[in-house]
Amino acid sequence: MAEPVHQIRALHTASTVTVYQAYRPEIGLPAARDGRFPAIWQRDRMTWIKPSFLWMMYRCGWGSKDGQETVLAVEITREGFEWALEHACLTHYERGLHPDRATWKRQLKRSSSRVQWDPERDLHLSPLPHRSLQLGLTGEAAHRYADEWTVSITDVTTLAHTIHAHVRDGDLTAARRLLPTEHSYPVPEGGLDHLHR
């Protein structure tokens, strides 16, 4: 059976889901050390979280891009993650999903979380046919993320570099063995209907 195009794949437990972000060391290192975001982390800016490890690697260049040298695995509550999905709006207007462009714009303005579906990536960071969730948090959602939902923060930069080294050496089996195990996330029935056609 073909994989659904829109499906959240994530490392998750009965109570948490792991998402990834990459920051400059001044933010990333204290966050991992203290298990919470430092005071310089701005709660009033949009912050994007990604359940897909490989999409994060594509975005941060395996932790090599300027300002994204520290890769974090942030474990958050499933309750918080699902709240963000429930209150999210797509970042773009989609005919057949939104009644009209003006309604979508109003929804987007009101929403404190937003969703993009971007092509998932393979170990070479090439696009795959199915889509990966990017979840943007701002306002109330960003505050809840930092102050209520976050359970743990782990620095996974060394893991990213090790996997990348295996890929560069052509040892995809070794690289695959180290990847976080991401499974289909059990969103409540109809929980994504407002986020894709």
List keywords for this structure.
single chain; 197 residues; alpha+beta; four-stranded mixed beta sheet; three-stranded antiparallel beta sheet; globular
Separation, N- and C-terminal Cα atoms:
20 Å
Instruction: Please report the total strand number as a whole number.
Output: 9
Number of alpha- plus pi-helical segments: 7
Report the mean per-residue pLDDT as an integer. Answer: 95
* Largest sheet composition: 4 strands, mixed
Q: Helix fraction?
A: 25-40%
Structural class: alpha+beta
Topology:
Layout: E1 9-10, E2 16-23, H1 25-34, E3 47-49, H2 53-60, E4 70-77, H3 78-86, E5 88-90, H4 101-110, E6 113-121, E7 127-137, H5 139-149, E8 150-155, H6 157-168, H7 172-178, E9 183-184
Parallel strand pairs: 5-6
Antiparallel strand pairs: 1-9, 2-4, 3-7, 4-8, 6-7
Helix pairs in contact: 3-5, 6-7
Give a brief rundown of this model.
The chain is an alpha+beta fold and 197 residues long. It has 7 helices and 9 strands; from the N terminus they run ββαβαβαβαββαβααβ.
Explained architecture:
The mean pLDDT is 95. The chain contains 7 helices and 9 strands. The chain has 197 residues and is of the alpha+beta class. Strands 3-7-6-5 form a 4-stranded mixed beta sheet. It has a 3-stranded antiparallel beta sheet with strand order 2-4-8, sandwiched between helices.
